[in-house]
Amino acid sequence: ALPWIEQVALLVHVGIGDTPARASESPISDEKARGGQPPQAGDLDLRLAKLSIVRYCNLGFALASRSASEKIKALYPDLDCLIQDGLLTQREKEEIEEVSSNYLPHTSDWWQPFTWAVGLVQRCQKEGHICNDMMFNNIQNQILAYRAKCAHMFDYDMVGVPLIYTQLAAFATYAYFVVVLIGRAQFLDPSKGYEGNMIDFYFPLFSTIEFIIFMGWLQVAMRMLDPYGLATDDVSFDLHWVLHRNVEVGNVIVTRKELHPELQYTVPLSGPGSVGRSNLKKMVGVIRLRKTRSP
Q1: What integer pLDDT is reported at residue 137 of this predicted model?
Q2: pLDDT grade, residue 205 (50/70/90)?
Q3: How far apart are CA 86 and CA 59, in angstroms?
Q4: Is 16 helix (H, G, I), strand (E, B) or coil?
Q5: Percent helix, strand, coil in the chain (nearest 5)?
Q6: CA of 231: how far to CAs of 38, 68, 148, 187, 263, in Å?
């Protein structure tokens, strides 16, 4: 399953904010609580914090995609390309490279942004921007679930099929149809003059169907070796589109100022004159008219 950002973004948008206790505090009382000191530079910008949590999750997805897909690796050959797309900052790049060079000889560094996201959520909890512990746990669990789906992508990359199996399967399939082409062919000697057997060629219908099915299975099996595709072909899972979609959707969700539109009373699907029913009647009438006119 591919990771989608909606659940993380929705919980971040709803769960992180000024709690009732903090929202009710006046600037004067808040200043007294700090001993008469002005707001510190470390006070958390909630809007930036929400955007950063979503960005960290999408950054982890981008780093995981670079390892699982040759197409994403071609689009983002190094971390500087992620900086140009706004998914990474220069300071974060230095942090990733420092941790990788000092502690990760196997260069598995894609998980680091998720630690930043979890740490930022924990900071929001300590500063009182999350209403209760249950919401805190829910946000943490959704981030970890998003990370687990990114890790699941490595199952297709790390657990590979041995090369001899793919070569053997391809050779066996092609060799089988070479034998079929010769073994199932019926050749008659015209000089023998067989009675009632003037035609010595027939179209191999069932062999053709068998060839199409077997070759289709072979192509599907080859595609499973790299489900996310190469850099040059069209694939079912376009991870680049998924990444851009997650970035756009996540940013829209967490930056909305209101939780919902203005409340209004409506009576859904009421009365015989509803638009859906009237359109359905029109569609049924058109279908009946076509049937009556058809010969």
Answers
A1: 94
A2: confident
A3: 10
A4: strand
A5: 65, 0, 35
A6: 54, 12, 25, 47, 48
What burial class does residue 238 get, using C-beta atoms within 10 Å of its C-beta: 0-12 exposed, 13-18 middle, 19+ buried?
middle
Q: What's the burial of 149, exposed, middle or buried (CB within 10 Å: 0-12/13-18/19+)?
A: middle
Q: Nearest-5° angle of CA 89, CA 92, CA 96?
A: 135
Helices (H) and strands (E) in the chain, counts: 14, 0
pTM: 0.69
Whether the CA torsion 88, 94, 97, 99 is positive or negative: it is negative
| pLDDT tens digits for range 10-41 | 999 999 987 654 544 444 444 444 444 443 43
| Confidence (pLDDT) at 35 | 45
Pair of tokens at residue 280 = 């359905």
The count of C-alpha atoms lying within 13 angstroms of the C-alpha of 251, restricted to the half-sphere facing its C-beta, is 10
| Short-list 149, 124, 111, CA closest to 50 | 124
From the number of C-beta atoms within 10 Å of its C-beta (0-12, 13-18, 19+), residue 111 rates as: middle
